[in-house]
Structure formats: C-alpha cells, structure tokens
Design goal:
Rossmann fold; two-stranded antiparallel ribbon; about 25% helix; globular
C-alpha cells in the first residue's frame, strides 16, 4: 500500500552564498518517513513553480518547517524593522493560503517553529519580532556555539492545558523541549487556541479550534531525534495517522488521533 505523501515546505537557500536552492533539513524527512510512516516530498515554496491547488491535490498533508527567514510583518499589518530579520515572500505566498485551505478542507498540517508562526498569521494573528526583548521573557534563540546535539538540547518545560489536545496526545501535562526561535505569538489568530506555554509565558503549542482535520503546531523543533524523543514521537505518529485517514477519505476524524 502506498504511503501518504507529506509535502515538506522547503526554504530558499544559497550554497556558497551564490547558488540558489530549495532546501529541507534531513531530520524533517526522517521524522516524516520513519515516525509518521509517510513519504516525504520537498516542496519548492515559490508561486512561480507550484500553486496551492496543485499541492492540495498532490499531497495528503503538509509539514510547515522552521526556517531562518521570518513571515513578513505586512502579512499581519505591521511595518518591517531590522528586528524582524530576513524574509521569504515566496514562501509566504504559498504557505499562508495553504494553511487556510488545509484548515477548511480538513487536510492535515503540522507546523514547526516558523510553521507555528505561519499558522497563527494565516489565521489573522500577530507576532513579536524578538521575544527576548519583552519584560520577563527568556532568550529562546539557538545557542550560537556547540554541536548539533548541544544546540537541539532540551532547554525548558512546556505546560499544556489540563485535559487539552496536547495533554491527551502526550499523556503528560508537562514536557521538556528544545528551543530555537526568536519570534513569538502576540495575538492568536481566529480559532487559534494556545494549548501550551513555556515557563516565561511564551506560547509553545497551538491548535485550530473546530478544525475537521489535524491542525497542530509547536514552537519547538520536534523533528530532531523524533524517533527517540518521547514528546516528538507521539506528535509525528498522530500526524501520520491523520494523513492515513485523509487518504481513506476520513479527514473529519483526523483530529481525534490527538
């Protein structure tokens, strides 16, 4: 039986600062293939090459990956500043309408880091460009030095709503996660429910209220060591089960896997 196809949102990248490519972290493909049990398909996130309707017809679900560029603040009604960092307007043009279409159709989506922020913006929410500048907030950015293992090490707890979607999915009210992001959610978008917070109050887990399919997102990076991490594995397993349901025409049942 063919595996469900998961479109992995790619990022624009320059090899040697001059050769343009669309790139996706190997750990994303590994998590999709080995934990979710699906076939990973890297998406060139650029409206010159693909359209949202084509992607919806080709893929059974979508992994909205992390990425260095941020969602352009014009997408949530603000002017860009130096603090907002770099942007990828081509990715914005694909992912924001893709999120809305998936929510409407019940097609599974899992947002990670930038993908978490994309889901919030797509639903009408706003972001803060640098949450470490907010009073009482911690620095959630990737450590500047160290090995891959050190950079993706577990750094803080996330506490979920008791009895909520993530509590049920994880089987725990509090878990430990890594943290590698600079921006954060300020105002939740329409139907966006914040279901988990870091100790400093930073939103870390969201879902779309009333979505007929799997529509969960996290601010941390569960793709790292997904097969062995007790937090990552149930998240990707549930995402894969939702994609299986979608292929069988049972998308309306997908969120129940959480």
């Amino acid at each position: 039986m063919a595996r469900p196809v998961i479109g992995i949102i790619g990022n624009h990248h320059l090899i040697d600062d001059r050769y343009p490519v669309h790139a996706g972290g190997t750990m994303n493909s590994e998590a999709v293939a080995q934990v979710a049990g699906c076939m990973p398909l890297l998406v060139p996130s650029d409206p010159r090459f693909v359209t949202v309707p084509e992607l919806l017809d080709t893929c059974d679900g979508f992994l909205l990956t992390g990425g260095r560029p941020n969602v352009h603040p014009e997408e949530y009604g603000e002017d860009p500043t130096e603090a907002h960092g770099a942007f990828d307007r081509n990715r914005d043009a694909i992912t924001l309408p893709l999120v809305r279409a998936c929510v409407e159709r019940g097609q599974p989506i899992l947002g990670i880091c930038r993908g978490f922020q994309e889901v919030n913006v797509a639903m009408g929410g706003t972001l803060h460009p640098e949450i470490r500048d907010l009073p009482g907030r911690d620095n959630h950015r990737m450590p500047p030095d160290g090995s891959l293992e050190e950079r993706f090490a577990l750094r803080h707890a996330v506490r979920f709503t008791k009895g909520g979607v993530f509590h049920r999915l994880m089987g725990a009210e509090e878990v430990m996660t890594n943290t590698l992001h600079g921006q954060g959610v300020v105002k939740p978008g329409q139907r966006v429910v914040i279901d988990g917070y870091a100790p400093d109050g930073t939103p870390e887990a969201i879902y779309i209220e009333g979505a007929s399919g799997f529509a969960l997102s996290v601010q941390w990076h569960p793709e790292y060591n997904a097969a062995n991490d007790p937090v990552s594995r149930p998240l990707f397993s549930a995402f894969g089960e939702a994609a299986q349901l979608w292929t069988k025409g049972q998308g309306a049942q997908a969120l129940k896997t959480a």
